Fold:
Amino acid sequence: MNDPQFHRIKRLPPYVFAEVNAMKARARAAGEDIIDLGMGNPDSATPRHIVDKLVEAVQDPKTHRYSNSRGIPGLRRALAGYYRRRFAVDLDPEREVVVTIGSKEGLANLAQAIASPGDIILAPNPSYPIHMFGFIIAGAAIRSLPMTPGVDMMDLLVRSVRHSVPKPTAVVLNFPANPTAEVVDLEFYRPIVEFCREQGIYILSDLAYAEIYFDIPPPPSILEIPEARDIAVEFTSLSKTYSMPGWRIGFAAGNAKLIGALSRVKSYLDYGAFTPIQVAATAALNGPQDCIDELRTLYRERRDVLIDGLAAAGWQVPRPDATMFAWAPIPPAFADLGSLEFSKLLLRHARVAVSPGVGFGEYGDGHVRIALVENKHRIRQAVRNIKTFLANPPNERDGAHNAVAAS
Structure:
């Protein structure tokens, strides 16, 4: 029998990060010491009081049963409490909050709920891959919003809507942004909300990095604009805020119609996260918050070691105001290679793994993303390796360039 051609799989391109990941695995298997600054996978331990609550909850056999796909009531109330404290936004835990198995699952399942084949979705480019591919899997078409430096978001949005047939169903926003680390203030959202309300376009806001910020005012929520509740839903996560990536707990909050649609899809697909994890997540949101300040300080210190070290090595990288990433323009001497080939050279000769920018969309190909997921000692080691690499470019650089040009 011939290999079947599955429609949705055909619409997914080869995973760009797979090539670098395979090289990294081979190097480690050969005994090489690779400093992995690629995946945004927090390396800090989850705070002790959260772990203790998990251990306590799991001792109760009643928590071993099926959970609630919408999330246990106490956790939904805790998320509403977070929004009240942090953003002065009052949410109805029954109608305007749903617990997700990480924000990635929430975005993907909302895409299934609201998108149909032929629908158009506006998504930033570069962006976190699920912002685009969640909707592509659902059958929709993506119109990219090029997030280049100095872009006028409102002008870009208006032009994209004017030239889209049919009119877009939704627009995805992500600030603080992954991978670019760009931040915005509350006034940025106001005209976007007004325009999208007039046009009948939903807004999906990814706020996963709301608590990882440095030396700037706390990033706002789009739901701080009252009219946003008519059209917007916002995704948050405990992964970065409390160093809980493997726990897979996130949330969607906002417009009751969108939350209801997501909840209905989830009711067919899952029974929610394991109840002890949800109990521990409740403890995270309701408990002491000094752990967030400690993580913020940790990432700030790592950021400064990285940015200052790279500057001394001759690589000028903007100092991010938020997130756990640096969005690094490829050094001019290597810019013609593109981000994938440059990432391979860094891995091969500097023993440092980074994420090629093209993996976040074609408009990211002039950059690589560097994650602050190693301690300061390892980051200094990575900087030393990169400095040596930049000072003595490998001969194969020309070969890599010729290979790219021939492809």
Remarks:
- The domain at 7-45+291-406 is CATH 3.90.1150.10 (Aspartate Aminotransferase, domain 1).
- The longest strand covers residues 120-125.
- Confidence is low (pLDDT under 50) at residues 398-407.
- The chain has two domains: 7-45+291-406, 48-286.
